[in-house]
Amino acid sequence: MQNIGVRQPMLQKEREVKKRMLVGAKVGGGSPPGYEWNVVYLSVARDEALKFLEEHQYEHLVDQFRALAREKDPTHPATVDVTSGCWELREKGGPLGKINARVFFVVDKEDRSIVILGAVKKEAEGSTPRATKRLMKTRQRKYLNGEYKSNL
Questions:
Q1: Where are the beta strands (DSSP E) in the chain?
Q2: pLDDT by residue (tens digit) across 84-141?
């Protein structure tokens, strides 16, 4: 028998994600000439990154997004390596050592925002796993549907 009208409880993580969207950079902020784009991120994205990165490595990725926020078009940057689909910042080596990091984001041209959806440590060669892509697409859809809000 089906319970019609009874709402299924959300997972704890989903409730937290829905409430937590934080600002990382604002248009015009930073050193001159300032940022062209806002950077906002789901708190779960930071939590995911810190599961496999040390603080200095995390700060390196933050710097990559600061550079991206200075670009006229963050989907075609001159300063960082980005792939399309659900936009994906790819970073390996340097401060990350052998870690192969992927940070997923969407560009909201209406709000002039780069919205960071999540981060993973890529373990295997080849393309990003389908399960990861589905999760990021779900977060992207929720963002575009207004389920996540920032304090811009």
A1: 21-25, 38-42, 82-83, 88-92, 100-108, 113-121
A2: 667 888 899 999 999 999 999 999 999 899 999 999 999 888 888 889 989 999 999 9
Domain that holds residue 39: 22-144
Q: Which residue has the tokens 């200095």?
A: 56
User: Does residue 137 lie within any of the structural domains?
Assistant: yes
In a domain, 96, yes or no: yes
d(CA 139, CA 117): 6
Residue 15 lies in a domain: no
* pTM of this structure: 0.81
Name residue 2's amino acid.
Q
How many domains is the chain partitioned into structurally? 1
- Cα–Cα distances (Å) from 60 to 91, 109, 123, 129, in that order, read 10, 25, 20, 24
